[in-house]
Amino acid sequence: MTLERLRIENVRCIETADLAFDARRNLIYGANASGKTSLLEAIYFLGRARSFRASKNDTLVHAGADGLTIAGNLIRTHRRSVLGLGFGPPGLEARLDGQVVTGIAELATIFPVQAIDPELHQLIEEGPQHRRRFLDWGVFHVEPSFVATWQRFQRTLRQRNAALRTRATPDLVRVWDGELIDTGERIAAARQRYLATLNPQVRSMAERLLGHSVELHLSQGWAAERSFREALDRSWGRDSERGLTHVGPHRADLQIRVDGQPARNRVSRGQQKLVAAAMLLGQLRCDSEQGSPTAALLVDDPAAELDTTSLKRLLNEVLELPLQLFITALDQSRPAFESLGSVATFHVEHGKLTRLI
After folding, report:
1. pTM of the shown model
2. How far is residue 279's CA from residue 54's CA, in Å, rounded to a whole number?
3. In the chain, N or C terminus with fewer CB closer than 10 Å?
4. Which three-class secondary structure state does DSSP give residue 291?
5. How many Å is the maximal CA-CA distance in the chain?
6. Cα–Cα distance measured from residue 2 to residue 252, given in angstroms and rounded to the nearest whole number
7. End residue of a domain, out of 294, 319, 337
């Protein structure tokens, strides 16, 4: 699957753009704040309905505009499709060949896209929700039924928490426990299955990128020596007192260890970025080998915080993956970019994009 053409209206500093891309390698360069990352955000939005660097979609809309539109011509298994997204005061609308796309999960199967950006180190430094999102993205793409189980769990969790907040009787609260346990255990089992296939890929990738051992371990959200039901029983006093369910897969975390030590305490900021990149690239390779390849990888300013040797290693690994690459840079002259070989090159200046090659 490839993104053949992209049309943009009112995405940050890009008022309009109509671009044709190479099926394998695309380099976008220009000064800081020229619009390079805005282009990558538009591509990411096409498959995720959100930005990789902003939590609210309204921040993506060009100043003074009511909304944004993004349309992509996709080549999908030897047929062409048009995927279009609009966002404005009415909300988000997505259509594939004129038909309404019903949700984010459907978008992710139409145009699966991932990003390596300068804030990738947050996967190591920030809270567990970042790591859960990373893990669940991979699980969903190799076990499509996972998203339905996850949605059932979330609905049940909301109902249980609502009952807890209103100080309902224990019987009324715990009527939700059966569904919560069933879906929660399914989620934990799916995550563990996926992690068993992901870990070898991450270890191998980390050895090549850093020369260090990286291992991922899942803290499932309740004590490993207990069943989920036992954990809920033991947590009842705290849950009822605070009006919140304190154990379950919504409290899971992915523990990252470098040479046997917690990554957060073991490596520098630049190395954190390489550890996180090893995780993401290992995931892309893992998913591809299981028949669920990612369509596009966005690499935003990879030279930030990486020396030339590390940058070359990263680019070499990226180029081995069977996907469409979009990479940004301040200029195109760094020696590390020579490994890109034949590449479509775009220059960005003040939100205006021009294809040079």
Report:
1. 0.93
2. 22
3. C
4. coil
5. 68
6. 34
7. 294
Domain shared by 143 and 285, yes or no: yes
Q: Are residues 222 and 346 in the same domain?
A: no
Give the range of the structural domain holding residue 143, as residue numbers without chain letter. Answer: 119-294
- Distance separating alpha carbons of residues 288 and 267, to the nearest angstrom: 29
Instruction: Tell me the residue ranges of DSSP E strands in 304-343.
Output: 324-329
pLDDT reported for residue 173? 96
Among 273, 272, 281, 348, which residue's Cα sits nearest to residue 320?
281
pLDDT at res. 160: 97
Give the count of domains, the chain.
2
Q: What is the C-alpha separation between 34 and 294, in angstroms, rounded?
A: 28
- Measured CA to CA, the distance from residue 61 to residue 51 in angstroms comes to 11
Residue 339 DSSP symbol = G
What DSSP line would sit under 181-249, residue for residue? Answer: HHHHHHHHHHHHHHHHHHHHHHHHHHHHHTSS-EEEEEE-SS-TTS-HHHHHHHTHHHHHHHTS--SSG
- Do 174 and 274 reside in the same domain of the chain? yes
Q: β-strands 91-96, 99-100: how paired?
A: antiparallel
Does position 334 have pLDDT exceeding 80, yes or no? no
Alpha carbon separation from 212 to 24, 177, 244 (Å, rounded): 30, 43, 40
Per mean pLDDT, which range of 121-135, 176-190, 296-310 is the poorest? Answer: 296-310
Q: What's the gap between Cα 165 and its chain centre?
A: 32
Are 254 and 203 members of one domain? yes
| pLDDT at position 355 | 93
Q: How far apart (Å, rounded) are the C-alpha atoms in residues 84 and 49?
A: 11
Residue the block writes with tokens 């390849």: 293
Residue whose token pair is 């008022």? 15
pLDDT of residue 294: 86
